[in-house]
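Narrative of activities, Objective 1.

The group set out to show that a structural description can be obtained from nothing but a protein's sequence at a throughput compatible with the screening campaign. Below is one input-output pair from the validation batch, recorded exactly as produced.
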Amino acid sequence: MFRGIRAFWNDQRGVAMILVAIMLPVLIGFAVLAVDLTRANALHNDLQKGADAFALATAGELDGRSDSITRADRALATLIIGNKYQFASGAEVATVLSSAGVSRRYLRSLPASDDTAIRAADVITDEVGDAKSAIFVEITVTPVGFDAIFPVSILQGGGSGSFTLGATAVAGFSQSICETVPLFMCNPFETDTPATSKTIQQAFASGDTYSREFRVLKVDSNPGPGNYGLLSNGLTSIQEGMAKGTAGICYDRNSLTTKTGVTFGQVNTGLNVRFDIYQGSLKNNRDLDYRPASNVRKGASQKSNCNKYDLATDGSALPLPPGTGYDSLKGMTAPISANSFWSSYWSVNHGTTYPGTAVKSLTYPTGDTTKPASRYDVYMYEIANDKVKDQSPNPSKEKGTPSCYKGDLSKADPSRRLMNLAIIDCKANQAKLNGHTQVRPDGYASVFLIAPIQKQNAKDEDDPEGTGAEKAISLEIVDVDGPLGNGTLDKALRNEVQLYR
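Output recorded for this entry:
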């Protein structure tokens, strides 16, 4: 009897059946659980990728403009169309995401730590008045239901196999400009009443800037339209930046740092190399970085030389003419109203009658080429039609071709009389502009230098980098950044959109 029991005890035939019987439910359970986890992960992945894409597309419109939130909402609504997700509760096929399933919040700031929840102070509540402050957007995809095939307590307390999955993402926009001088100009279209103010982009798009002469002086104790100031930079001197046309760093579109303690005479000497004038310590008349423009006609008298500019007063040479109807409160003149504005300039410098409508207003923002041409358009017409070498009469005998630069003149460039600079609402930021502080720019503009910069007092010409009183910088606005401009600043801008959470 005991021998039979021992034999049965030691008999291992069929043991696999027992093990399989024990493990089979476990294996099937884990297989089903793996399927559930894969389905849940796929659903969450669909929702999260959608939230990330929505956030990036929406943030891409937050460029600091007054209509940025309007454009951002439009981009979000467009991107939502047609998006689908799979494995939601009760859906055997992919479900189309509805616009009601996506919400957004625009933010002016984020907590320093990702572990800190977004605060009420970070959220923009006035989406019209504070649209310019929107830098970030938080996208939330409303949680959707998910039904597990194998409901166990590992999925949710209590053993239920139904739960919800959602997604959130935070993205932000940053824009920098890398090819700009360390200079800002006060917005001439800013008023004391925000409702009547225009951004520089709005003014440009409506034609309000075209052919006006803007005269800007350095910022004083009461900065406003008609003033300019300096920005912090990565150069050894301000005049280097003015001469080269770059600050040595890229400026953040949302924040600039003003600079003080610099002699503004360095601005003059730096800018004047573009007119083939090498003053003060700036004697690098062979350096490509200090080359002149290809058209340097400036109404110079016979007393002028390579380091001194003297305006002809006898009518034998004329610079691009100044504007009329100067408004000192805005720092600008009236637009050019008729082709007759150019009669004297053309007759003296070119010895013929002004070609009138043949000179097109190519930079007018609406594309209307029949307007009386701006100074920049006349300047470019002279270059395109071989008029730069025309000589004015005795005694000045001025030509527009450079003569002082000793480098390769084939490298002379029409764009050397253009420079990019920041535009700031100085009235709104008065308290910040006389110190080393941060300020948000209204935008950037490409401006054309009309004439060399001089001193108020003739004796100060011997010390161009000194502290003597300067005359205003005379310029035209040729283009602005953003969708309302002509697009010439796009190459200088670097737009970056990234996920933050």
